[in-house]
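Encode chain A's predicted structure.
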Amino acid sequence: MNNSVTNTGRLLWAGLRALLVLTVVCGVLYPLAVTGIAQGIFPGRANGSEIRADGKVVGSSLIGQAYNLPPKKGQQTPEPDLKWFQGRPQNGLGTNSVNTQYNLILSGATNRSGDNKDLIDWVTAAKKAVIKDNSVNGYTVKPSGVPAEAVTSSGSGLDPDISPDYADIQVHRVAEKNGLPVAQVQKLVDEHTDGRTLGFIGEPRVNVLELNIALKELVAKN
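Encoded structure for chain A:
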């Protein structure tokens, strides 16, 4: 009986020591080490790829934002504010229906097949809107010039980037709405166009938030 109690006590003490050691190593030392390395080598990415303007955080380079006018009374879908560069459609976003304490937007894809009527209607309407909004005095957008990402949402609905082609067809409209020379706005787009990652991964892209921050600064100077 005494031997049994003694052996049980030893096993419990060994288990407790293992628990304490693993808690310190895995719950304290390892997280501190990983956090320290991340902050030392990749501080921007470790902190959420924050973008700052006027001394404050205005967003993340990984999450797209909408640039819309305040919705009018009874209006369900706000109209885009055409003085800004516009990102991709956000048809995949959903509304929070579970935790109603917070006004959250849920990311996600539309999950519509290529022959789905809703998707076809969305794409058709979006293409007409892109052509109409960006065709200004002396410049007309051709239907064949509308890139795919201008009329389709990404898998998350939060894609922060657009292609240089989509940015280019918005240049004339943005220049007109802000009273800027087209050449200045085009130069802004070129300066904010990133190439393929490592030279061969992905496609050239333009971060819409960063571009609009630069546009705001350009407007202020003029």
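The mean pLDDT is 87.
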